[in-house]
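> tool_call: predict_assembly(chains=four)
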Amino acid sequence: MDLDDRKLKILQAIIKNYLETGEPVGSRTISKYTDLNLSSATIRNEMADLEELGYIVQPHTSAGRIPTDKGYRLYVDTMMQEKVDEVNNMRDDLLEKADRMENLLQQVAKMLAANTNYATMVTTPKYRSRKIKFIQLTDVDEYQVLAVIVLEGNIVKNRMFKSDIALVKEDVLKLNLALNTFLQGLDIEEINIGLVQKLKSQVGAYQELVSEILDAIATAIQEEGDIRVYTSGATNILKYPELSDMNKARDILSTLENKEELTQFVDNPDIQPDEKRGIQVYIGDETRVDSMKDCSVVTATYEIEEGIYGKVGIIGPKRMDYERVVGTLQNMMGQLDDIFKNKKP
Amino acid sequence: MDLDDRKLKILQAIIKNYLETGEPVGSRTISKYTDLNLSSATIRNEMADLEELGYIVQPHTSAGRIPTDKGYRLYVDTMMQEKVDEVNNMRDDLLEKADRMENLLQQVAKMLAANTNYATMVTTPKYRSRKIKFIQLTDVDEYQVLAVIVLEGNIVKNRMFKSDIALVKEDVLKLNLALNTFLQGLDIEEINIGLVQKLKSQVGAYQELVSEILDAIATAIQEEGDIRVYTSGATNILKYPELSDMNKARDILSTLENKEELTQFVDNPDIQPDEKRGIQVYIGDETRVDSMKDCSVVTATYEIEEGIYGKVGIIGPKRMDYERVVGTLQNMMGQLDDIFKNKKP
DNA sequence: TGTTAGCACTCTATAAAGTTGAGTGCTAAT
DNA sequence: ATTAGCACTCAACTTTATAGAGTGCTAACA
């Protein structure tokens, strides 16, 4: 027995219907609301076959059928016809409110959540190594100095330091110069003890301050390498009865609140032909997150420059409206591309 | 009929028991588990009185009693004996992980949530006006310039700008000087059109860049004035059956996710004698947040310097463990005080 | 006069039993 | 190969019964 055209059509009808209603779909429904013109009995026979093939199951003997993960997978891979979503003027809204990367990403999460009625996540882009572009020391007052650290890619960090000894303006300038000559263009791994010693030998009484600054630089680079995750619309999860079971809901919401587990969508082993903006669909267990075994996650990849990318994800029930979600995500990725391109005129 | 000592003791016993169990408390329970040595019948009589006085109610005829908001209020105001919570080594943990204000506050929210099993919120401190301490312009490359804006209180903001025309090093220096001479020490309201015109007349071809920078300064100051709210442990709400009703839970969680409504705890009209670190308890409707009518919120005030303060809040069911929460908060406020004091040696 | 034992009563929560209806699988006829 | 028809199943809902926690009231007691 194999999956002929009619079986495929019936399966599609079942899944479509289930996506809308969330209720098991019976043979009569399919018989009535498709143009196949088959009686419910025939549909029943076909359904029995589809069940044997593993695409659908009955929650219990006398109920209709619901799709299995395998069924959803087939649907997503071959039967879905993407809807292009009219997320009009999203870009304008985005630009208006967000002048900085972090805001932008948070805004993206928010808009997607509002648009889809699912929970959303956005990860910060993942950089490989980051080199130091330059450091600028400024004396704020007699005992305080501000260090602005600019990394490759124009990532700016600033830290305030307190010195135990009163600062002399010329010393600060000298320190600045010393730091830059030693550190400019270096990566974090390249800052070794020898270098630190050499640097310290040149700064006289300010050794302690320099230590602090070096630490700060290290953590700054480190933390820039960390992936952060923004989420939005977590409570949308509660709109879907099949996820509103108190325990499931708590687990999912915790996962969304804690965020750690979400980073695992970034490094995905299954690489995918790229014509679809890196859109990936994880169904149920495919998410590899235990609390999300009743969810699906759709992720898309945005790239801010060659090889530096992050993920945008939509988290909803398995019966989420995949077409719309994929459409919305593709649209959003387009908007983001525009923004990132426009940023370098 | 008035609230004599015995009634008070019984009320206290009822509330204590209800805080623990969350179940209506019957006369027999009180008769057995207090040292009053009264029969359940007597307790019943007293309970009837307490009900008439409005401190307790029956959810239905044949059930025990639960405290009303008025009952809780009396308890919190007069009967509670604060437990000092041993939040040991919290400070070390805090300092270790958080080198910056924002991180610190987020960390505070997280630790409190972990410690109390309730949801928590922390607001950023509320500044009055902020004056510009100095601005520092640095050319990053030929077309880009970095502006570091330092506000009074050592708040540092940085923005990157693109210039349409190639930047000349000396021009950037001049621009820097001009900006500082005009803007240093000024508040946002003091930057008027006349001043802007004068400034622009001195910067030759860079008028557009200056406009952008001024805009950025304005939004930087503005956004520093905005109160942000961090929350943590939102899902703890779901641990309490009386809040786990799907609709209540959704509403509460949304409120916590959206955060806007939470800022209203910052500006509190009821001022309070300060020996208790500004701890306030809002019971049910007192929160003035509709979705939280079944919750209580306990807030404490931290002050980073004279007049500049923010709030830390714990959100839980009405039957939250007020003693412990107040204790924990007082403790935490102590730790924060230490940290802020140590910051200026 | 305050306290208490005792009893009838109330009402929720839980369990048990009954009912309904959507949906199935199988068989026999087309 | 398709379909009408029928017996069967099972979750979901409704109804009825039962248990028990708790009350209010009364009358007796110290």
